[in-house]
């Protein structure tokens, strides 16, 4: 082979290697992008689950607070009525 042919062969090899490197870099970029998307979906799913749990707890807490307030008011009314009854019967 003459020198020109050797240079052309070597340039072809370099071009092939650059093409292969470019393809590998694109595949790595695609894989990384897919992993990022998968991670984002996983995190969003967990955040949505946590938000739903917090909403449920808040609703349960409101219900419990209302029940406690109602029970406290009822108990207070019974105690007040009992005190008035005791006063009434004690004064007789």
Automatic annotation (TrEMBL):
Superkingdom assignment: Bacteria
Q: What is this protein called?
A: Uncharacterized protein
Where does this protein come from, organism-wise?
Variovorax paradoxus
């Amino acid at each position: 082979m003459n020198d020109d042919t050797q240079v052309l062969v070597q340039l072809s090899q370099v071009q092939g290697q650059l093409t292969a490197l470019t393809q590998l870099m694109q595949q790595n970029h695609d894989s990384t992008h897919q992993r990022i998307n998968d991670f984002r979906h996983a995190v969003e799913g967990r955040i949505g689950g946590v938000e739903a749990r917090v909403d449920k707890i808040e609703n349960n807490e409101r219900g419990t607070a209302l029940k406690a307030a109602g029970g406290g008011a009822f108990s207070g009314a019974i105690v007040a009525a009992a005190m008035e009854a005791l006063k009434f019967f004690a004064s007789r």
